[in-house]
Amino acid sequence: MEEGQQRLYGTALEEIERNKGEEYCYDDARELVDQGKTVASGSWKMQVDDQGRLWLGQLLIDLSYQWMMPTYIPPVLLLKSWHKVTRVQL
User: What is the separation of C-alpha 63 from the centre of its chain, rounded to a whole number of angstroms?
Assistant: First the structure.
């Protein structure tokens, strides 16, 4: 079962990569997020809630997202390319 779930996770990541449009650096992506857009990079998503708080989500093996309000942004995310995706309900 774990192998099947891992395969579905890999397929989901491939689908995210296949369906991306224009890519943005982190700073440009944050500007989009501050304007109410949702952006993704691989297994990561960023968006703000109705109160303007930043949320960072990571895709889990069960294909749900674990959302957190970060106190800092992991440096590895600063180097990734981001693209717009459909907003999700937090």
Answer: 12
Sheet holding 38-41, edge to edge: 65-68, 54-59, 44-48, 38-41, 83-85
Beta-sheet pairing, 83-85 with 38-41: antiparallel
Read off the pLDDT of residues 42-82 as tens digits, 9 standing for 90 and up.
Answer: 999 999 999 999 999 999 999 999 999 999 999 999 999 99
Could you tell me the maximum CA-CA distance found in the chain, to the nearest angstrom?
A: 41
Question: How many whole angstroms separate alpha carbon 48 and alpha carbon 29?
Answer: 12
Angle, vertex CA 32, rays to CA 30 and CA 33, nearest 5: 60
43 vs 16: CA distance, rounded Å: 8
Residue 1 pLDDT more than 70?
A: no
